[in-house]
Amino acid sequence: MSRLIVVGGGAAGMLCAIGGARSGKDVILIEKNEKLGKKLFITGKGRCNVTNAAEKDEFFSCIMSNPRFLYSSFSIFNNNDIVNMIEQNGVPLKTERGGRIFPKSDKSSDIIKALKKELDKLGVKVLLNTTVKSIIINNRRAKGVVTSKGEIEGDSIAICTGGASYSSTGSTGDGYKFAKLAGHGVTELVPSLVPINCNDGFLQELQGLSLKNVSLVCNYSGKQIYKDQGEMLFAHFGITGPLVLTLSSVLGKVDFNKVEIYIDLKPALDEQMLDNRLLRDFEKYKNKQFKSYLAELLPKAMIPVFLNLLKKYGITEDMKINSVKKEQRKELIKLLKRFTLNPISYRSLDFAIVTKGGINIKEINPKTMESKLINGLYFAGEILDVDGKTGGFNLQIAFTTGYCAGISS
Fold first, then answer.
1. Between 11-22 and 108-122, two packed helices, what is the crossing angle to 10 degrees?
2. pLDDT per residue as tens digits for the range 324-378
3. What count of other Cβ atoms lies within 10 Å of the Cβ of residue 94?
4. Gyration radius from the chain CA atoms
């Protein structure tokens, strides 16, 4: 019986071990933490967005880096397969907005339990609190690993150590080091599904404000590259929330000097419709103070910010609505439809859900996940230069590539 050594006990590592054991191998799964699935535990705010119910074409439209690389592996193990595996191990799932699939219990720990149950059924040997220090390679073939507890020989090695994001969960970039020592190229690593730092004076005032049903728009070099409606959040450093995280995955590696971001606070109304509404309101509230009227349009925290920005157009907080001129009303409309931010950078990898970049996929066999440089050496999961939008796509990349590496090793 051949032996597969899997390095890393996250989503990709557990599925790799399952795939390897299902195909008749003796599998040893090595994890440096005290338990499996530490990062999996915190995904989806502790609920674990397992995968996405999207059909194949839609699914691949949500893979932002190298989607074609996944075509072969996805045909072997896809989103329906991981759903079946988890439910067969006693954890019912549910589908929410945007096709996001979660455990019905809303507990990520149940997903980890289901995968551990499958590992146990298959007889996978799990070594916890064990750090892999290096990969043993002889004559361009992977032959084993050196761990904190000694050497372990194997016929194939799968590196499933995750990316460089959320380093507190153990994703400290070990796999990139192993890959480079084996001769592999690693593309630039940048944070993805990550909040964005902004340089705006009003951030302290808006900190903690959540906006729902707004539209976030991003232009790059003058061309619109992103527009979506949903939810976002202001923070002391800038902006975060679902719309912002998705934007970061679309933006990727960019020069922030060329990035323009603005919020449409009234996406259901075009400028003419909004003007008509304001005219009706102005007639209804003609004797009201401008500051009081803004409560009809804006969350409370935004009112002082708007008043400050509108000062230069001669608008004061205590002026009566019936004294607001047409030009001033137009400036209010512009601000409501185009509340502009000054983005300067992403937050660091420690705040990113996934890492964009990784092992050069040209050096990996897309059907098997085996290295084209070293026989018996496999890579799977976030360590590869493949990533997707928020919504369960990144976990599915890990599950798919992990399983394929396991059955192919």
1. 30
2. 999 999 999 999 999 999 999 999 998 999 999 999 999 999 999 999 999 999 9
3. 11
4. 25
